[in-house]
Amino acid sequence: MHLNYLALAVPLFLTFIGLEYLVSHKRGKRYFKFNDSIANLSVGIAERLLDMFTVGLFYFVYDYLHRHFAIFDIKQSVLLWVTLLICTDFVWYWYHRLAHEVTLFWCAHVVHHQSEEFNYTVSARITVFQAFVRTGFWAVLPVIGFPPAMITSVLLVHGLYPFFIHTRTIGKLGVLEYILVTPSHHRVHHASNPQYLDKNYGDLLIIWDKLFGTFQKEEDEPVYGLTKPLESNSFLWQHFHFILEMFYSVRAAHSWKERMRIIFGKPDNVDPAAREILEEKFLLRNKSITETPKLNNYVVWQIATTLTLLFLFLLLEHYEPVFIQVCITLLILLTLINCGAIMEQKKWVFYLEYARYLVLCLALYFYWPHPALLCAAALIMVMAFYFQSHLKQRYLRLVYGYTRT
Ligand SMILES: [Zn+2]
Ligand SMILES: [Zn+2]
């Protein structure tokens, strides 16, 4: 059987999260918040899913650049593997630093910093937008002459390491603090305390921060999250709020010079009032959110099912037709939007079920292209429309434990 064993990262990742939860529980600490952890996992699930479609594209880019523009002819050797790892880490430092200092890149990276908790689930907060920006930076590696196969292997190791530094359960690590990026260093990076802002950009080695003046030791207890917390669990809002804030500011600008300053300047140039105005327009914040056990149960079951589906989806990727891959991706994305909206107690989650139903029917039709299936699907849909108000009430009661008016 031709399985994709990289899928095993999913259960491994969950095991570590479970262990971290147990350790923090034993120490009497609350490092996990339900909504935050679910939101973090949702972002990670979407990224892993979409990564399946982009990984080939990125490899193609590295390969193309290597074949046409490579400056040096680099052959594999132990020394070169080490050199590549150090080069990758150096490029990462600048990618990460600019992701914080340039508005356009911050649009993608901001998602990683929205969590107000700090645990292993935060390491999942990577988006596919970020992968595109990063690839732009890493494109310098094949141009230097590193072969694409070597690059993708090193990126795998380099991408795995940061998982371990997103935790509060590990204190300072003695002599390692001088060389590697440790959990302590990365806690500082995720903190919004004034003295910790824009510090510790490194991924693997802390030397770059020390060299370029962005190093900060962990002293006071960090406060995690954005300086202006998002206070929303909406999957869509988390991904797009800053992009919208940027566009809003660009539209309000009076000259092209000002527009360029907003897009390519520091994120501080984005109008601070934009968030509130856009929230009014798109988020329709629900002020009276109360956590109900019913709601939590539904979200937990959905996320658990989605994680299982994601694992199987990745494991069996070589056996799935592209059409089914697209269907599963859509189904999972709709589920994540659904979970985020449920945590915000939105009423429109009901209508998302129509979309999920439609995708499911398409997938079924792919395997059983019979007119009877279409008829049955259409009949169910018509019935659902007919009894919509009754169904909606029942659904909302099931999900939220009461009917919202
Ligand atoms: Zn960052
Ligand atoms: Zn991080």
From TrEMBL:
<feature type="transmembrane region" description="Helical">
    <location>
        <begin position="322"/>
        <end position="341"/>
    </location>
</feature>
<feature type="transmembrane region" description="Helical">
    <location>
        <begin position="6"/>
        <end position="23"/>
    </location>
</feature>
<feature type="transmembrane region" description="Helical">
    <location>
        <begin position="78"/>
        <end position="95"/>
    </location>
</feature>
<dbReference type="InterPro" id="IPR051689">
    <property type="entry name" value="Sterol_desaturase/TMEM195"/>
</dbReference>
<feature type="transmembrane region" description="Helical">
    <location>
        <begin position="137"/>
        <end position="164"/>
    </location>
</feature>
<feature type="domain" description="Fatty acid hydroxylase">
    <location>
        <begin position="81"/>
        <end position="214"/>
    </location>
</feature>
<keyword id="KW-0472">Membrane</keyword>
<keyword id="KW-0812">Transmembrane</keyword>
<keyword id="KW-0560">Oxidoreductase</keyword>
<dbReference type="Pfam" id="PF04116">
    <property type="entry name" value="FA_hydroxylase"/>
</dbReference>
<keyword id="KW-0443">Lipid metabolism</keyword>
<dbReference type="InterPro" id="IPR006694">
    <property type="entry name" value="Fatty_acid_hydroxylase"/>
</dbReference>
<protein>
    <submittedName>
        <fullName>Sterol desaturase family protein</fullName>
    </submittedName>
</protein>
<feature type="transmembrane region" description="Helical">
    <location>
        <begin position="295"/>
        <end position="316"/>
    </location>
</feature>
<feature type="transmembrane region" description="Helical">
    <location>
        <begin position="371"/>
        <end position="387"/>
    </location>
</feature>
<keyword id="KW-1133">Transmembrane helix</keyword>
